[in-house]
Amino acid sequence: MPDSTAAAIATNRFGLGARPGELAACAADPRGWLEAQLKGAPPVIGDPALQNTATMVATIDRVRAQNRALRADNGQALIQAVMKLGAIYRPAYVGEVTARLRLASTTDRSFLERITQFWSNHFAVSVDKAVVLGVAGSYEREAIRPNVLGSFQELLLAVERHPAMLLYLDNYRSVGPESMFAERARERAGRELGINENLAREIMELHTLGVEGGYTQADVTAFAKVITGWSIGAAGKGIQAGGVAGEFYFRPNIHEPGAQKVLGRSYSQDGLRQGESVLLDLARNPATARHIATQLTRHFIADDPPPATVARLAQVFNRSGGDLPSVYRALIAEEAAWSAPLTKFKTPNDYVISAWRALDMPIDDARQVPAVFANLGQRVWSPNSPAGWPDRSADWDGAAALMQRLRWADEIGQRFGAGVNAVQLAPQILGATLSDNTRVALGRAASAAQAVTLLLAAPEFMRR
């Protein structure tokens, strides 16, 4: 028998909001509908206008080299050089955000898209750092999307090696204090070079073990030494040259030599393999399983994750060796996911995407798309810290934020409402969660435009 409540949970809690007809399509077997989305390769954003990271970073490096040559020139030349960089960053960012929205608003695998966006936020980079503005989208396309149906180890390695992460957390500048390069700097210029601990700390605190994962400052420092040399290739000549421009490149001359002890284990492997070995062990650590299970449970079920669910997901993570589809299937099987009230307040990102899906709105001006998310308080790929955007309702349901949503809902109603019958649409996208109050309000609306505004402003539309 079709289950309208379970279908609403499948499309709104696990997915990114129902499109017209989607509730009916999954009502017969909501869990099977979700599991089917885990089969086959993850979808690819195939916009030919989007550049890969290597091309973008190589282009930026060339422009920066030109800018350095202008430092002795007049101020106007420098202003023009900075504007030239902006002319590279901004269109790339707009194109990536728009392509992401197009996929999210039209995909029939919205559960998989939510998973992808979950991991993108878990392994967050921020476009508030100018150089990341040009590569945040390609980072998600290259490191996150291809690996969301693989193992956690594969995903972790892809993320930490990606130039966007190395740029964001400055690991490409990290130099082993006893490396060949540091020794030469001391001999020739009396300069002391050292490690940058940003990436090592965030891998442990945010990406794997969690803040209560049992590591110490000494572990962070040792791990930071292990991943010195994890850098980005560059063309040309000199000490910065080597590898393929814009791609991951291990630089032996800045890598700290010798064994390092991390979490009580000594790693004596040479070069790149030393860092890969530590990452593999971090991925297999039981603390990582608990941390990932907690994050997933908070995102998909409740702000305060049920301990029993966390324990079961962590067990599956450990038993499967970090096989991500096994963890997702365990999440689908959790009774708490189907019985907990739909009380999680949608983030601005979720709210916008669910509105696009419900109304099948066109993207008629790509330049305006990033502004929609920014105006509602969640500029795409721009969290305030490496911890990513917060995932609790209290962080999003303030009065000012709600007013911004209501203004946007009114704007959407005015622009697209004339062609929408909200009374008929509401049960198609909300199912059994549609309240009598909302149903009555839609029926009494003064116009089709007002009815659409009321639908987007309904409490049940704003929650998942």
Quick structural overview:
This protein is mainly alpha-helical and 464 residues long. Helix content is 57%, strand content 3%.
Task: Give your account of this protein's structure.
- By secondary structure, the protein is mostly helical.
- Among the domains are: 169-284, no CATH class; 348-457, no CATH class.
- The chain is 57% helix and 3% strand.
- The chain has 24 helices and four strands.
- Strand 3 and strand 4 (265-267) form a beta hairpin.
- 45% of the residues are buried.
**Alpha-beta classification:** mainly alpha
Q: Quick one: biggest sheet?
A: 2 strands, antiparallel
Care to count the β-strands?
4
Strand content: under 5%
Low-confidence regions: none
Task: Compute the separation of the termini in Å.
Answer: 23 Å
- Binned, the helix content reads 55-70%
CA-atom Rg in angstroms: 24 Å
Order of helices and strands: HHHHHHHHHHHHHEEEEHHHHHHHHHHH
Spatial order of the strands forming the largest sheet: 1-2
Number of helices: 24
Mean pLDDT: 93
Shape: globular
Topology summary:
Blueprint: H1 4-14, H2 22-26, H3 30-36, H4 53-69, H5 75-106, H6 110-122, H7 130-133, H8 136-144, H9 152-161, H10 163-168, H11 180-189, H12 198-207, H13 217-226, E1 230-232, E2 248-250, E3 260-262, E4 265-267, H14 272-284, H15 286-300, H16 307-319, H17 324-333, H18 335-339, H19 348-359, H20 369-375, H21 399-416, H22 422-430, H23 436-443, H24 448-457
Antiparallel strand pairs: 1-2, 3-4
Helix pairs in contact: 1-3, 4-5, 5-19, 9-14, 12-13, 15-16, 16-17, 21-24, 23-24
